[in-house]
Every structure is written in structure tokens, then in C-alpha cells.
Amino acid sequence: MSSVTHVLLPIFGLILAGYVCRRTSRLGATAAAELNKFVVWLCLPALLFQATATTDWAEIWHPRFVAVCTLATLGVFVATLAWRWRSPRHLVDASIDGLSAAYANTGYIGIPLCVLVLGKHGLVPALIATLIVVCVLFAIAVVCVEVGLQAEKTLHHAVAKVVLALARNPLVVSPVIGGLWAVSGLALPQPADKFLHLLGAATTPCALVSLGAFLAARPSGSGQGAFTLSALKLIVHPVITWVLAVWVFHLPPLWADAALLLAALPTGTGPYMLAEFYQREASVVSGTILYSTLGSLATLSICLYLIRS
Questions:
Q1: What are the structural domains, with CATH classification, of the chain?
Q2: Any residues with CB less than 8 A from the CB of 161 and at least 6 apart, and which?
Q3: Core vs surface per residue 102-111: b (16+ CB within 10 A) or e
Q4: pLDDT tens for residues 65-113?
Q5: What whole-number distance in Å separates Cα of residue 294 and Cα of residue 174?
Q6: Residue 260 to residues 13, 38, 72, 288, 290: CA-CA distances in angstroms?
Q7: What's the CA gap between 280 and 57, in Å, rounded?
Q8: The pTM of the whole model exceeds 0.85
Q9: Cα dist from 8 to 47, 111, 198, 215, 297, whole Å
């Protein structure tokens, strides 16, 4: 158990540092947003580009792992959407709820956690899971929201908006460009490699402090909705993933462990940003982020104990 504590304490310590600094006004009202921009537009893209540009793509292409993550993630999303839509609840709000229950925080917590627990080999499954969450899950949720709002005359227009948004997303573009660089067979120039390394190394502390400041600044929803969505994210999602990884697709130990850790992550900030963008009531979403982040200290501890035992 001490090894589990050694892994999780630095991660949640950085989140707590950001939370305390924001609550005590050591960080200003825009700190979370500005740190988030720094991570999204510079640090994380540099890390993702360097990872894909210097990795053998034969190692990255792991269809069984992709299948496990995609099926588990979309299964939780669809089931939650159907349940919340029958509440009754508007399709837009049900879609955001489904996203909250399935949207793992792979970028801010998943990447540093996998690297700490699994070493450098943990970066590849974390990268794949990030692309699934950002490119597949988020895109489907946006399409569902657009359909619910009937803001577009046809589904084709809604899909076109999603594709355009993804094409502008640095977390999508950077690994694609990195992959093209790897295919070219060219080595990264040493100054460029050092530049990317310095930026990528800033990802973990800046992202986690930003998350803490975000949690301190956002009102959280209390009540059954946020707790239920948190339980779906922290319990149902990893259980489904573990069953698929071990009993259905028979993943190798490292990939099965990575799949479990990534599924057990708390809800990321994506659902909140979507709710804010479409001007929907966001207290349940922010509550889910807060409760799942706090609860993941226990669930991730259990997962790490199982992995290391």
C-alpha cells in the first residue's frame, strides 16, 4: 500500500496545491483558464507530438486495446444517455450527463499516472485512450447535443461542425503530425527534441495545478445526479473495462493494467466546457468532476493495489 501512496500523493498533492492557491487567492480568477490554455496549446501537444514522432507505430497499433477502451467508454456513454433521457430529461442534458459518466481525465491525470506506474511504456496506451476520448467520445456527444438542439437543419451539418472543431483541436492535430513525422523516417533535430522535452515536462504540474484551481473556482452540484454519475465513472466504467480486457480480449498484462487505470480515472473537464459552451445548467457536471476526482483517490488506490499485488 505504501507504493500506491507514493504514486498517488504527488498527483493529488499538485491538485490540492492548485485548489488551495485558488481558494486563498494566491492564484487569480483566470488562473485555471490561463494554465489550461498553456497545457492545451503548448505542453500537452508537445508531449503528444514527441511521443508519436519517436515511437514505432507497430507498438502503438494495438487493436484489442482500442476495442476495449472504445467499447467500454461508448457503452457507459450510451447507457447513461438512455437512462437520463428517459428521466425525462432533454437530449442535450442527457448527452452531457452521458459524457460526464464516460469522459475519463486521460490528459491531466491519466498520462502522468500511467507514466509513473508503468514507466515510459505507459505513455502509449494513455495516448491511445486520450485520442479515443477526445476524437471519438467527445465528437459523438457533440453530435447528440446538436441533434437535441436542432440547431442545424441536417445531421450532415452537425457532423461537419464536429469535424471542423476536431481539426482545430491541438490535442488531435499534434499526434497526427507526429505520426506523419514518424512515417517519414526523419529523426528529430536535437534542439527541437530538447524544446519538446522541456515543454512536455511541464504538462503534469501545470495540468494538475490547473485542475485544482478549476475545482476551487466552480460551483459544484449536490444531489443524486452528481453522485450517481460519479459512481458510474469510478465503478461501472472500470469494471466493464476490466471484464473486456481480461476475459474477452485477453490483453497482455501491461495493456490490461493501463486499460483499468485509464477507465478508473475521474471525469475530465470536457463535459463542463461543453455545458458552458451550450449554456446549459452545469452544476451537476461540475459536481461530478469534483466528487469523482475526490473519489478516485480511493478507486485508483484499489486499482493500483490490485495491479501491484
A1: 2-308 (1.20.1530)
A2: 142, 146, 152
A3: bbbbbbbbbb
A4: 999 999 999 999 999 999 988 766 788 889 999 999 999 998 778 888 8
A5: 31
A6: 22, 29, 11, 20, 21
A7: 40
A8: no
A9: 21, 13, 23, 18, 7
